[in-house]
Design a protein that fits this description.
The chain is mainly α. 64% of the residues lie in helices and 0% in strands. It is built from five helices and no strands. The radius of gyration is 38 Å and the shape is elongated. The N and C termini lie far apart (90 Å).
Length: 106
Amino acid sequence: MKEMDLEVTSEFIVIAATLLEIKSKMLLPKGDMDKEEAEEEDPRKDLIIKLIEYKKFKLVADFLKIKEETVGIMFSKKPEIIEDKKIKQSNIDILQDITILKLFNI
């Protein structure tokens, strides 16, 4: 178990078993079939559907693996010095005597 990847091995065994089942069904004589067996779909079609589905799952798994690797990346900005700009007192003195009505009448 330490040397083999069990996931890959089990996938191989499932595909091999499916191929053997298809081969055995193709080799059986077709004359003595019941109506149910005659209406049964082509076993190769089932295999093709399973292989397409397997490929989709592998692609999605690869996509999610890439997303998992990039999700922890953070971008930051270097700290900068913010200058405290004080308003000059002379500018404030000019605005003290102005009211809304004076601004409206101007």
